[in-house]
Every structure is written in C-alpha cells, then in structure tokens.
Amino acid sequence: MDVDENFGIKSSFQLVPEERYGLSPSFVESIRSRGFEVNVHDLNHDGRLYSSEAKFFDRVRRINHYGSALGAQGFRSGAALPESLLVRRS
Prior knowledge:
Order of helices and strands: HEHEHE
Largest sheet: 3 strands, parallel
Shape: elongated
Structural class: alpha/beta
Radius of gyration: 15 Å
Mean pLDDT: 85
Number of strands: 3
Helix content: 25-40%
C-alpha cells in the first residue's frame, strides 16, 4: 500500500477469506481506511469453485456472506475455468 500511495495509485486488494489467510478486522480496515478497494478473491483459492453445481452454490452463499461482512466492492474468482480444464502440475 505504501508503494501504491507514493505513486498516487489506489489499488484493489483481493482477499481470500477462508483457510489459507487470516483476515483480521484491523487488517481489512487498514486497507479501506487508506482509500483502497476491498474485494473477495474466491473462497479459499483452491481452484474448485466451479467443480460442481452443488459446490458452486454452497460457496456462493459463503462468498456473499464474506463480501457483506468485509464490505467488499466486488468479487474475482480464483479460476475462471472448470477444474477439469485446468492444467495440473506434478
């Protein structure tokens, strides 16, 4: 955020709300209070958002909950392709 501010840029920060990262209220507020945008970036960034219709609708409910709780201005999926089309690395 310091670098962006030094160049007069107000960035969008994509936050992953479950499993891998801790999102304390003070961290989220530090982003927002400096004039940056907060968005939800997938649910847990595991690449499985679109792996099944049932899983998608379950996760959408939770994503919307986090979006509201975080005061998010948008959403960006971790992967735009179905899991079956993603390239797997060994």
